Amino acid sequence: IRCWSNIPFITMPLSRAHGKSFAHRSELKHAKRIVVKLGSAVVTRGDECGLALGRLASIVEQVSMLQNQGREMMIVTSGAVAFGKQRLRHEILLSQSVRQALHSGQSQLKDMAIPVLEARACAAAGQSGLMALYEAMFTQYSICAAQILVTNLDFHDEQKRRNLNGTLHELLRMNIVPIINTNDAVVPPPEPNSDLQGVNVISVKDNDSLAARLAVEMKTDLLIVLSDVEGLFDSPPGSDDAKLIDIFYPGDQQSVTFGTKSRVGMGGMEAKVKAALWALQGGTSVVIANGTHPKISGHVITDIVEGKKVGTFFSEVKPAGPTVEQQGEMARAGGRTLAALQPEQRAEIIYRLADLLTDQREEILLANKKDLEEAENKGRLALPLLKRLSLSTSKLNSLAIGLRQIAASSQDSVGRVIRRTRIAKDLDLEQVTVPIGVLLVIFESRPDCLPQVSALAIASGNGLLLKGGKEAAHSNHILHHLTQEALSIHGVKDAVQLVNTREEVEDLCRLDKLIDLIIPRGSSQLVRNIQKAAKGIPVMGHSEGICHVYVDTDASVEKVTRIIRDSKCEYPAACNALETLLIHRDLLRTPLFDQIIDMLRVEQVKIHAGPKFASYLTFSPSEVKSLRTEYGDLECCIEVVDSVQEAVEHIHKYGSSHTDVIITENEKTAEFFLQHVDSACVFWNASTRFSDGYRFGLGAEVGISTSRIHARGPVGIEGLLTTKWLLRGDNHVVSDFSEHGSMKYLHESLPLPQRNTN
């Protein structure tokens, strides 16, 4: 205990069991004891008179949910003044209306004026009602709440401070949620700059400092400060260049310009930051977030505890590298520089990367061996994923060949004129190809994906953010290092960034101001999760690869088993592998059908019977649980159809619009299938495994898209480009083309420049 002006106060917080605050957002889910501070702007209505009941009910629901999970929740709340103001205004209006009705008549009611209400009186009138409201709300979740009113003197007096500490601990032990507020009915007016006297001293002037003081005294794991702004900005919110700060570190105050304080309440953002930093030094993690936004207020508290990127997180641990936001900006700037290079220069970068894949083969395979050993030791990856994780000399050689194909085909990809129109005399319009912008590619267990996607991004002039699975961390690191080495020959190293921070995929999908297109490469579950999480960013890809092979009555015996074996067994974990085999009913109990079954048994393919196929068998294999199953292993479903038309209908009902095949010698039947099956890839007498960018001659692919717009099927360079319009005129104005104007529209098509086909 030290003394200052004869008033004792604590100079350093009491020691905590765990000592330090959480270093990363992902650790917040381990928070046991949590303080939620509700600012006046959160609790009160926009007119500052009365409470925002719907918002308050949502907050109580979230706190109750966390309390029922076994956490210890405390609330520091404002709102007594606003609630009291509402009650007192009502009483004054009622009183005035009665008096004026008795003495002056109804005509005088309109002249009534409401006097200025003193804040302490409002607080005294509102505290009981506010607490009754909290009690009623928490009762709905079978949770008891208790009210505690404090002043600054309660912390300065050692005995009172210990009593407060003991009371709070006892309430938490009994699973009761303490509702704490400053006793605004008796609290003296705040003295200027008396709330924070340096980093080690904090007195209670407002609920921000109260929440920080309480959090440290109670050795709290997490303090959530809810206000009416999204978090801490580097300049006042609403200004043109204001950017939300995701993580704030001690010492960053100099880079922040504070605006005015909140529309209600005592504290502004500067007070919140000072309180947050004091709590952080005391070992409590802090997040400042928006508790008023209608789209997020219903889950803002639970999102923070789950580690999602909400508001501003205060951390003492500064990462060694750039943040993902900084990486996004670097990729944007690097991509624009990349797009401005000559086509030969971009091709030179890709050729260099292809050479590095073979020249540095031993280093790459050594890193990949570490990933494989760690994955096998942990036992977390299934065999198909282990196969995807594995690199080999042949894979690297194939990668290098594919990259050289990309380099050769990329000479006129960016800036290619695809349409020219003469609008009028000396007014010519061109439509030219341009990069999409910044791509985010998220991939699992596929380190070979990194150089493929990087080469396609380089060829198309796009900036690139890569997020690989942690199971391939060593492989991804060396491959990204080689990619940046290749980019460095023309000074565009920053165009391709590998995200190594602990960013959750869901958080990356919210960076709509930094990312223009998301491309997931991985399991169907990963793709579905990304499609669900992406907010305002288009997602290119397919959620499932349910590929069909239909064996027609006119199928060649020699071709059937070869195509089916290759489609299912060559690489069963691939998204273009056969999953459902459709057999024409007339082929049952024929030698051809027996050959198919024998081949699948030899290859150890587990067979699941479709409903119709099972009805033809006395003793059938296990009946399929769903005809929409992507097995990704040596398993497949067999189903029977009566015609090519029924095969088409089955594919449309149960397929995923990925790749579907017909095996037949009847050209008319084949053409019917090719024209009527509505999938990204439809083949005749060829394996499903040909659905691949490399095999299509695209060099490589960023993925296979089953969407209906922009790009479909294997997506190469062309799928990573969009267009812009260039109009060249000479003092042209629209008014010249009016009914009485001097010019007329021509709209003549002009010949395109000759493409470079070398």
TrEMBL record:
SUPFAM superfamilies, per the entry: ALDH-like, Carbamate kinase-like
Chief place where the protein resides: mitochondrion
Keywords, alphabetical: Amino-acid biosynthesis, ATP-binding, Kinase, Mitochondrion, Multifunctional enzyme, NADP, Nucleotide-binding, Oxidoreductase, Proline biosynthesis, Transferase
Subcellular location: Mitochondrion matrix
GO cellular component, one term: mitochondrial matrix
Domain Aspartate/glutamate/uridylate kinase: 32-290
Role: Bifunctional enzyme that converts glutamate to glutamate 5-semialdehyde, an intermediate in the biosynthesis of proline, ornithine and arginine.
Full protein name: Delta-1-pyrroline-5-carboxylate synthase
Organism phylogeny: Eukaryota, Metazoa, Chordata, Craniata, Vertebrata
Gene (UniProt): Aldh18a1
